[in-house]
Design goal:
The complex is a heterodimer of chains A (132) and B (330). Chain A has 132 residues and is mainly alpha-helical. In chain A, 51% of the residues lie in helices and 5% in strands. Chain A has a domain of 87 residues. In chain A, a hairpin with a 5-residue loop joins strand 1 and strand 2. Chain B is elongated, with a radius of gyration of 29 Å. The chains are: A mainly alpha (132), B mainly alpha (330).
Chain lengths: 132, 330
């Protein structure tokens, strides 16, 4: 091969870049996060059901929260009618966080895993967490 | 015609996923086997092509001389466009790889008022490809949040810049929109400019449609047809730690996105996309124009039997003198 002194280091750099995700994660046991639902408020509920289904909330909660914010702040409408017909007050702090008072073990567990930093808490006050 | 074939090919790829995740239940094939095969094809294929190129000898200097070459000390030479030193070559290659300087120098030729022929600086292709390649790179780097655990803070910084508009939730990333816009422009110009349309082949349209498909499916997945991101990362981390797992209930749009990305990377070593590696190996760019300062001997030159004038005169001196032809040595 001609110019091996330049081409082979180039190929080694290429190999190092493409295999980077493999050796970066080598030997690390990365468990899927399981958000905890064991807060006192949830334990007291007869029917353990969020405003929408679990599957919907998993994928769409960020959009729902965004719609809630726009409805409350811009339209002054703070009543959400769920797909099950029940009425809820649209409020992050007073509705969502009332049940899910464990931000660290609920919100943050997944957010940390997929590395998202939502800006909810730029304005809202994060709940003070008592030791569970 | 080429565009239609390429478009249908991408549609077929999407249909394969729809069939595979629907009735056939081929999630393991689509989510594990094909990504692994793609990785092997891409890595080995690119290395193979580069080694194959490296085996071609480049005995002579053939750089494009896009400026004044270095000659006499009082003539100013163009150090980047006609480099005569290694430093100049590094500068030229840096500008080429990072900023696409040769596209920046594009001109278009046109007749003005029916008779005046003129060249005009043409920057649209340069702008389009710069926007396309850089936004694609940022989108790719952003995806590493799904490939790494824990995620380094540099990625958060890139996301913060990329999402600085803070529109909606999940927040809009500017790079994704620029990527889709730029790749659409690159496709549009192939349709719109007659000369470019004339030389465009299926292999030009196919990567464009494929990348449009990737960008569209990604944008749909992030903002519209939502998937469970935690499960998506679980699948990817399973692949990266060699403990493959197919979590239940990731939407079909994820598999479409993944399959199109696999198609792009598997297609890479067989296609024009190899310009990623080829740009570094372009003799017209990476050689210093030092032919006037350094003698480059063709390495496979064999000794040629020559008959010099002195030897010729030696053979025929007597006859030359008789015919009154002047000779150098009496």
């Amino acid at each position: 091969m001609h110019d091996a002194g330049k081409i082979i280091p180039g190929l080694i750099i290429f190999a190092a870049i493409v295999t980077f995700p493999f050796y970066y994660n080598m030997g690390k046991a990365v468990e899927r996060p399981e958000p905890k639902l064991d807060t006192p408020a949830i334990q007291e509920l007869k029917e353990k059901q969020c405003v929408e289904s679990k599957e919907f909330m998993r994928a769409n909660h960020m959009q729902l929260l965004n719609q809630w914010r726009d409805a409350v702040v811009r339209d002054g409408n703070n009543v959400y009618i769920g797909s099950n017909g029940k009425k809820y007050t649209m409020s992050l702090q007073n509705t969502c966080m009332k049940c899910h008072s464990n931000k660290k073990n609920f919100c943050d567990s997944c957010h940390k895993y997929v590395a998202v930093r939502p800006y909810c808490w730029d304005c809202h006050i994060a709940p003070k967490e008592s030791k569970l | 015609m080429g565009a239609i074939v390429a478009f249908i090919a991408v549609i077929i790829l999407v249909l394969i996923v729809l069939a595979g995740t629907g009735a056939a239940n081929l999630h393991f094939l689509l989510g594990v086997i094909i990504p692994y095969l793609t990785f092997v094809t891409f890595t080995i294929g690119v290395a193979y092509r580069v080694v194959k190129w490296g085996r071609s000898p480049v005995p002579f200097r053939i750089p494009t001389t896009a400026g004044q070459q270095k000659s006499l000390s009082w003539i100013k030479d163009s150090k980047l466009d006609n480099p005569s030193t290694t430093t100049g070559v590094i500068g030229r290659m840096g500008l080429e790889v990072l900023l696409f300087r040769s596209l920046f120098r594009n001109t278009s030729s046109k007749l003005y008022n029916g008779s005046i022929f003129a060249h005009k600086w043409e920057k649209w292709l340069w702008m389009g490809s710069l926007a396309f390649h850089w936004s694609f790179l940022i989108v790719l780097i952003r995806h590493f949040r799904l490939f790494m655990a824990p995620v380094p803070s540099l990625l958060h910084l890139i996301e913060a810049f990329d999402g600085f508009l803070q529109i909606g939730s999940p927040g809009i990333f500017v790079s994704g929109i620029i990527l889709l816009g730029a790749v659409s422009y690159l496709l549009f110009r192939r349709f719109y400019i007659p000369q470019v349309r004339y030389i465009s082949l299926t292999s030009d349209y196919f990567p464009l449609f494929l990348i449009i498909g990737i960008a569209l499916s990604g944008i749909l997945m992030r903002y519209f047809i939502k998937v469970d991101v935690v499960s998506a990362k679980e699948l990817i981390m399973g692949l990266l730690t060699f403990k493959p797992i197919i979590p239940k209930g990731i939407g079909v749009i994820f598999y479409i996105h993944l399959f199109l990305v696999c198609a792009l990377f598997a297609y890479f070593p067989f296609s024009k996309l190899m310009h990623m590696a080829g740009v570094f190996l372009s003799p017209t760019r990476n050689l210093a124009n030092n032919s006037r300062m350094k003698r480059h001997v063709n390495p496979w030159n064999y000794p040629v039997k020559v008959h010099t004038y002195e030897e010729y005169e030696e053979d025929f001196r007597g006859k030359m003198k008789t015919a009154k032809i002047p000779v150098e040595k009496e």
